[in-house]
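Records of this kind hold a single protein each, on a pair of labelled lines. With that in mind, the following record should read easily:
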Amino acid sequence: MKKNRPKGRVILVGAGPGDPGLITWKGLEILRDAEVLVYDWLANPELLKAAPSAEKIYVGKKGGAKYKSQKEINQIVLQSVRQGKVVVRLKGGDPFIFGRGGEEASYLADHHIPFEVIPGVSAGVGVPAYAGIPLTDRRFASQVTFITGHEDPTKNKSEVDWEKLARVGGTLVSFMGAKNLPDIIKKLIRAGKPSRTPVAVIEWGTFPHQRVVVGTLKDIVKKTRKTKVGSPALTIIGNVVSLRKKLSWFGKRPLQGKTILVTRARAQSSELVRKLSERGAEVLEFPTLEILPPSHPEQMDREIQNLSKYDWLVFTSINGVHSFFERMKKLGKDARIFRNIKVAAIGDVTAKALEEKGILADLTPKEFTSMALFEQLKKRGEISGKKYLLARADIAPSDLKQALEKEGAEVVDIEAYQTRRPKGEESKLLGWFRNQKIDYITFTSSSTVRNFFESIPPTFRKKIQSEFVSIGPVTSATLKEYGFKPDREAEVHTIQGLVEALK
């Protein structure tokens, strides 16, 4: 007998003002459970990664552009939830502060649909903080008033009492008012607000490309026109704006205003992306590698079963560690099979991955290269007559194997995983180069270099004006093969070292 499908439900989630790190923990957990994700223009696309298996429906809501009407959005949500699905309605900022979340919740209640609301950091709070403007300060303001600069066009008259706002004092925060800023300023001055009152207009608040224009009621319109400020923008009016000069922090980060292209495999790029973003960079991800299981896993299975015959097992990357232990698990093996073998790891990250599996590497060379490992083994007298198992990528160079065999070792080199160049995103990469300035391109391996250049027509390569940043000498050598000299090379060949090279 078929079980009845469980009833669906809707969760309205506040995405925060832009910086994906500002979503709440609960909001992030809800995203992971989403079966359908209905999202707005102001919800950072990075958050979509938290719901990899969800059906994603974009409903626009960008001012001045074609988008789904509120009626259409309501219907989309209703149809999905009636199929018994968990529907997440992801809205910029907080759903209940100028986000029409109340209207959507009312619609659901009218149709007897169960729903929840997960609050978010409102743009009215988050954006001023990123601009270095406290909304309250006992020296300047003890109250805050939030208004919308874009009221419901079907209303016969405005519900905003401009005369009271001009007299009330404190801080005034206007949402969605970029287009109507001249009218808002005119009404406030006409109602008696002093023309010398400080004003800040913040465009794309909390995003890496945030811009802040500061002036007074008298000159702010002229300044925003000159700098071509557009939507989304938040306007703050009041004496607290004068504190920005002293308290501004967001624009002072070491990589603020820089655009950096990351070429690492998508599954491994999160640490690098996070570190660059924390330092103020706008990060573009163009994964040049896709990590796949080994093409012939039975080969690795055979060597795992016979691991005791080897003297050394060598891992050259974290991917090799993960793949090797995955095959061990399938074979019903655990760390006890390492009791009579020594383990070498190239790189601290590889060594750390082993440690997390309960294995401490017997040797990790100071320089994170295959030949540095070879030299260390040679100094220790650990080559001649020894048996080595190398668990590496399908495209790993043969230099280590050849060097070990030349010194009298018996070497078996197995494919622990495959690497492939993802297809289908080359046009996106070329579009980035045509439409914006990319300051730096990072490379974390020879494979990322090769696959990056293979994604670009040879005639286009010469037009690249970006600086190339390499994680180490082997990667730099591959760059030179393509006729490019690395502009920067990490002193320590790790992700942290790469970030330090950029700073």
Remarks:
- Confidence is low (pLDDT under 50) at residues 1-6.
- The first strand starts at residue 9 and ends at 14.
